[in-house]
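Q: I'm a student working through a structural biology exercise. My instructor gave each of us a protein and asked us to get a predicted structure, then write a short paragraph describing it. Mine is Small GTP-binding protein domain-containing protein. I'm not confident about reading structure output yet, so if you can add a plain explanation after the tokens, that would really help. Here is the sequence I was given:
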Amino acid sequence: MTKQPEISPHPALKLRHTLRGHGSAVYRMALSSDGRILASPSQDRTVRLWNTESGRLVRTLRHGGSLVCVAWSPDGKRFASGGGYDDKQVTLWDAAAGKRIRVLGEHDEIVTGVAWSPDGGRLASCSHDKTIRLWDPAGRRAPRICRGHAASVQGIAWSPGGGQLCSASWDDPLRLWDPKTGESRRTLQGHNSLIHCVAWSPDGRTIASGSDDRTVRLWDAETGRQTMVLEGHTNWVLSVAFLDAGRLLAALGRDGRLLLWRIDDWAQVLRVDGIGESSVFTNLAAHPTLPIMAALGDYYHEIKIWEIDFERLRGAETTAQTTIYVNAKAVLLGDSGVGKSGLGIRIAEKEFRRTSSTHGAQFWHFPTDRLPGLPDGVQAELTLWDLAGQPEYRLTHQLFLDDVDAALLLFDCADPHDPFRGVPYWAKVLKKHAPEHAQRFLVSSRYDVSPVTVDRREIDHFLGLHGLDGHYATSAATGEGVAELFGRLLAAIPWAELPRTSTPKLFQAIRTFLLEEKQRIRAPARRGSGEGDSQPANADSRPAGAKEQLIGANEQSPSVDSQPGDTGSQFTDVRPQSMDVNTQSGEESPRRSPGSLLPMDALRRVLQERFPEGKATQAEIDTVIGLLQSRGLVHRLKSPSGEDQILLRPECINQYGASIIQAARNHPQGIGAVTERDVLIGNIPFSGFARLPAAEERIVLEATVELLLGHDLGFREMGYLVFPSQIHVTRVPSPAIEGKPPPRAEVAYRFSGAIETIYASLVVRLSYAEHFRREDQWRYAVEFSRAGNRLGFSMAQVEEGAGEIEIWFEPNVTEFDRVTFIRFITDHLRTKGIDIQGQIRLYCPNCDEEVKNRAAIERCLADGKLAIPCQFCDTEIVIPAGVEEHCRRKPALGETQRELKDTVERRRNTEISAFRHDRQNYLDNLSPSSVVKNNQYSKKIEKISTSEMDAKLKGLRKMDTELFNKIVAAARTARAQQVYVSSPSKQLFSNDGILKAEYLIVAEYISRADSEELAQLIKSKEPVSYATPELVEKYWLQKLGDIAGKDGVIVKIDLSGIG
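A: Happy to help. First, here is the predicted structure for Small GTP-binding protein domain-containing protein. I'll explain a few features afterward.
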């Protein structure tokens, strides 16, 4: 204990004691139930017990390893501790005697939290090993293990009645558990990043959580509904706690910022910056009823005990003026050309304007009139999104609907062949992703000009078939039916149940400025993309109020980075512009949009000028940008120089992403690939949108590639970006080998959703898993191997938005690998798809016929039968055990799945890092000096005929000659056209053999698997690279020239005719 200073950081806080004594960092502390003793675990391998009234050290308990967390039993006689990296044990201690009672057991990794049940009969612990364990404190029973989280579990909290347990994890969702069964009851989705902490209110009605997304979120414990979002933190929220019998909520940030809110009106009543040091395992040890709390002091090994003036805080003025608002999201969905944009303009801007098809998306953001059910002081806002209907965008948008509150599904009522085209797809996607409360309305637009071909009976049948909530006929041109539709839309949104956001005035000011900047670039961007030809010249000619409604409006699409998701798959009519970036001349297309990147330095300067009374810190600016990015309103990027930029039109990412994938789709060999270099320099077709200025475009293209890779939509291979869903090479059925028929499907899965995107990400993830080696791929079919045996799957579309994957194996694939392969696929389908239905395929061992009677197979499975008679020859066919049964019998299968998922994450991160490294190589070759160099190197190339090559090889018997022969053999195996040899010496051949050289094998397409196989064939560490002909001139020639230098030589060998 030391003498405390006189100065307090806030009138409601009084420093009672500063505690020193630990020799290393102090982690997650806990106060006893009577508030008199504080237990502090430390990296110094001790737990210290402190008297909070006197500040004196009561005793020190020594442990064999570092400690991370402690928790007191309800009676205050015992406490439990969780071990760190060198311990991992859950230990029970006698507080009065200062002795270890027992070690209950251990986790596989660091123990991050411990919590006693309210009756003291159970102890819960959580860990980096992704599990929660429920222990019997008496040590009589083995722990119950709760599995379900996919990442480290950081916090746990019991409900006041002990009937439920809530966990916070780095895999984002909170989970509610049944402690009796260990089963997960519900997940709470809403945070946009890792969750660090969780707390239960004393009345059991509310759960609070804190996250890396810098928000505190409140949840209804009974329904799981998110009720409140609290903004104000500028770094990770590490700890949350209810104080004053639930009247106050406290939250501690990674930067030491302490915030307190009053529960009754969610006003922020206390803010202290730098209350103390913090680390990822720092917490706020606050008593639920007594006015006392403990936090780290000025150093990691120092603790401060604070007294809190509850009375002052209950009646305090707000620390920062707070705005409370609720935002609802509605979407316009449908195929391209059905009138979504016209209807959106009519609703939001109260006018009619002809538009071309939307590319990406656009949105309107505006306040609404006061709505019933919302208390005074709560602002209501509506964001109406118009999502592009082209195939390349519909798959992008389908995973950005998880927070939609209402949807309008538009159809062409005049289409005589398929009027509801596209609507069933969106209905399925909304069923999968939209919240339960989101109502979906069928809308026929252009009602005034389109002759109706669908009668009321057909519409009613369609509504019932797809579970839609009503039909409305509208005309954007005349306004007919629009007011009625908009009124119904507002009434359908449960405003009183939507989560409200409490945000400081400064945050709101920054948010408003960025949205106004988006509005400022809206009109020029429109003109650049050819929209708005019929818009009145005078913007003020819009109806009164429309201008105010448009504040913050902008053409927009959800950012790929803001949520887990996918990008487009099918593309049509993408053509180069008449003028494009010319890699030789550097000329640009005149059709460019105005600048859409706002440099961070410029933003800081403007904010300082506009708000001198409340200077915004960088952390506050970063926080607001992050919050806006999580809603898809802006996107943060880095320029090549490392400068932070804010992309005000993040729909550009979707537009450029669609162009990249379209370029891959149009590869002349049908391999679904585009060279990385062409993407990065903008040397691919762009159409349908106004391109960014060249400097901005390059930054956005780089970011887009990273996001495509980060979302498993493609992979990098030998200078290409490959997108599995864009491969169009047709697979030729495998012939029988040695009299044996080709493998047949053993199991199939039907599913709904964005089938092409689901397929693409499955291929990428399996390739990254490395347990199975990808061998070859075709249009919607891929082949892997394991220990030399082949296995694979194919996909077919069975109807719009629904597909079927068939999985096959060669006979020698082991049961373990079969189950591992199937389980990986089914886990992926459950995560990405909906309505998953599995079907085993049974074949008679006698007559080789397939059992076609699906009903009979399902009946046998339901009855638990182990065999079914063949319908052709009555031979008994054994029904194999299901995947889940195999996993239950062999826990190692589950562990393998976790290892594969971890490998996928590591490999993805490695690929993105490698891309960042390689992209500079591509861009370095754009300078005029590089072009001059390439011309010089071209003149240095010595072309050798096959006969000259044979003559030179005769008589040479040294090792380098043997290596060269191996390389030529490998090149022929790869069906290569040329081999380049580059040497720093003019005399490549000598009596001693071929001098030291580097080799480049040139073939139309070499996969990573091919290159690995060729490397094994060569069995040498000598530098051998692989390239396509189109990359030789663009990229590799300079590298070969750099190796050759001024005195060296580059030899180009034509492989045709070499025996």
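A: Here are two points you could use in your paragraph. The chain has a mean pLDDT of 81. The radius of gyration is 32 Å. It's a good idea to check both against the output above yourself.
Q: Great, thank you!
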